[in-house]
Amino acid sequence: MGDASPVGPGGEPTQGSGAALLFLQEHDSRIMALRNELSVMPERVELQLIAARMGEMKVRLGEVARIRDDLKARQEDLDSRVDKVAERKRKIEGRLYSGEVSSPHDLQAMSAEVENLSRQTSDLEDEELGMIEELDKLSAEIDDMERAVDAMSERSEELADKIQARAVEIDAELTLVIADREKAVAQIPSQLVFAYDVIRDRSGGIGAVALVGGRCGGCHLDLPEAEIERIRKAPPGELRTCESCGRLIVP
Ligand SMILES: [Zn+2]
């Protein structure tokens, strides 16, 4: 079998069982690589990471929105208290300056009340201002998170499209490679295919390898001279296995 190409111009095996087996191996390796790519596409990993981050951010977003809503309710409550105090102050001031009340004692009490209500208004307004500042901060935080979620969502769609497009390509190639494999299988004695499949299953997907310069193409160990001779001189249809890794060796 020497150094001629095991594969003809149309991709078909051109030589004996050994070459056909290597052709089969090449196809099985490609099938394995394609299936592996399908399941471990880097885009899938990124998509999973984004989904996890998005999930966390949505939880945080919900928490901050709740805090913001509570604070907003408290601020509105405070605002209505400010209005009530202002209203009460206006009424007292109205009476104070109406001339209806003439008792100095009453006028003094009303003045003291107006002063008291002014202080209350000022305290409440300070408190409200603090709340408004906090509300602004929370709203900005929510905006940032919403923007981040939008960006992640956009990236997720992009990744899902890429995955889908690549999956279609992979499926198409798999169909072709599997069909070629079937053609190759038809040209190899079934017992040999069986042996190859068994070895391949237990040897990390590689069942048949080439003898490369006195080395096993599977485990890369140098083979003894006598063994190399046996491999090279084996009758057609009979293949020897590597003593070290157990794979079929094609001379
Ligand atoms: Zn080996």
Molecular structure report:
By secondary structure, the protein is mainly alpha-helical. The protein has 2 domains: 40-183, Helix Hairpins (Orthogonal Bundle), CATH 1.10.287; 189-250, no CATH class. Helices cover 73% and strands 5% of the residues. The chain has a 4-stranded mixed beta sheet. A hairpin with a 2-residue loop joins strand 1 (208-212) and strand 2. Helix 1 (17-40) runs antiparallel to helix 3 and helix 2 (42-96) runs antiparallel to helix 3. The protein is rod-shaped. The model is unreliable at 1-15 (pLDDT under 50). Zinc ion (ZN) binds at residues 216, 218-219, 221, 242, 244-245, 247. Zinc ion (ZN) is lined by residues 216, 218-219, 221, 242, 244-245, 247.
List keywords for this structure.
251 residues; mainly alpha; Helix Hairpins; 2 domains; four-stranded mixed β-sheet; 4 strands; 73% helix; disordered N terminus; binds zinc ion
Tell me the overall shape. Answer: rod-shaped
Strand order of the largest sheet: 2-1-4-3
Heteromolecules bound: zinc ion
Oligomer: single chain
Per DSSP, the total helix count is 5
What name is given to the CATH topology of the largest domain?
Helix Hairpins
Please, what is the average pLDDT? 91
The first-level CATH class name of the largest domain:
Mainly Alpha
Domain count: the total is: 2
Helix-residue proportion = over 70%
